[in-house]
Amino acid sequence: IRLEEIRQATVPVRLTRIGEAAEGYKVDTVKLSPANVVVSGPASTIAALQIVETEPFELNGVTGNVQRSVGLVRAERVLSITPERVLAQVTVEPVRITREVKRVTVDVRNTDRPFQLRPLRVNLTIRGPQRAVQALELDAGNVYIDAAQLGTGEHVVEPEVVLPNGVELVKREPASLSLEIMDKQDKQTGSPPDKK
Asked: Residues 6 or more apart from 139 whose CB is under 8 A from it?
């Protein structure tokens, strides 16, 4: 009978994840406390032990951060693991995507005078949570120019873009538009011009 020396070692812990976050979400970070545990057992077993796995940690369908205590799996011939449980903190966040929305009509607000806007539409590049960005419908109410402070004449203007919380504007093409405001008695047509 050969008696083997009992040894101790500090070994990192790895979270065993089962399942995926809900569609449109992803696991961002995994933090284990403690990140390392002390294992004891026969010297040859401990020398070969690279990592200690946790018991399965269920992530199916989660849409937010998850924190819970999880047990550790004791490998064959390992006598003890200290501590026997760790606290797992999993950060889940929405998948962010970028989308281009073409030819969005620009609205001109707060003027009762005839005007001509060139061009009439813009292309927008937006970024945000996948679900919000994919479902977003942009119309003239979302993109507008406030003409309240603009007098007669030609103006270079940047349209305002109204987006839901969490969705940001990456790019607007063109960045600026030409808005010509005319006197009320001018016979010229407003925007868009009549096409005959």
From this structure: 104, 105
